[in-house]
Amino acid sequence: MLSDSTRHRDFPTLSGITYLNTAAESIPPLAVKQALESYWADKARGMRGREGHFAAVENCREISAKMLGLTTEEVSFCSCSSEAYNLLASALNLGREDEVVVTDLDFPAGVTAWMRALHPPISRLWKSVSGELNVADLIPLLNEKTKLVQLSLISFYNGHRIDWQPIHDAVRQHAPKALISVDITQAFGRVVLNCAGADILISSTHKWTLGVHGGCVIGIPKQNAERLTTHAGGWYHLSNAFDADRFERAQTKAGALSFSVGMPNFAALYALNAALRYVDGIGVAAISAQADPLVKDMYEGLIELDLRPMCPLYQNRPTGILSFSHDRSAEIHAALEKAEIHVMHSAGRIRLAMHGYNTVDDLQRALAALKSVLF
Q1: pTM, full prediction
Q2: Which backbone phi and psi does 195 adopt, to 5 degrees?
């Protein structure tokens, strides 16, 4: 995917380190730095720079839609996934008689919006078994009162990738009134997406997409637009924000466009536009073909070191994340950091993440460092 020369050219800050923490923070290519400089140049022009600002938003919408398999009208942006989920809660306006299914492998942003509602719906927890979510355990949680099933395509916690089609079919059969919301943050830009039929897609922008903070991509197919239109106040998402009747009614744009309630974070969208076009220029399938074998070899290497990954690895469900727990995790993390091997450490868990800019040398250095600590 990347030669040694193009890797050093596009990602100069990778020199001298082994970076295995993209699931938390990506290393952006230089194209993103250049996009941020373009934002600064436009911003420095004052009001005259807004032409460039809004053009960047539409350019970003175009490439986002292409990569999600949606139309531009079905894609919009807000500031982060937490904001997106609160806006989704506003759109659904659930009550105490309604039910929501969440999983114990989801990120907090996808779970807590329903818990913090003024009149919280009933939350039903789909529990993982040995690091996996099994559809047989989901079906008993579904019924006529289920209004939302919230999933992550790939879990931030252990890298588990859901088996999409059986889950989709079970929800449609056993909870006909339910919407399926899919957090693709740990997948978008890293693996080819396979969640056709999802009702809403949500992704942060500072991880596998190679963008920066302050952005979130929202994808809502047009058939769900009316049902998933927020009730939030604001102005950018209104069709009559400055019309004569603006004090009599607030006419919200439908679907994804209703999630952009205020002034866009232009800097994040300049960056995301450049980042996604960089990723798309290489191809997500090519990125996966480059990185998936590294994940497989790392998985096998961890087992040889008696470091049991927290979920199985499936060939037909690629993921960029591996996690393991260990009672010496703090010592392991400190040794890796000293060797300039960057991973995530949290509550006894070590998480490794491999993107298209990682190499066989990264893999070998990490495994050798782990072995030196443990033996």
Answers
A1: 0.97
A2: -120, 50
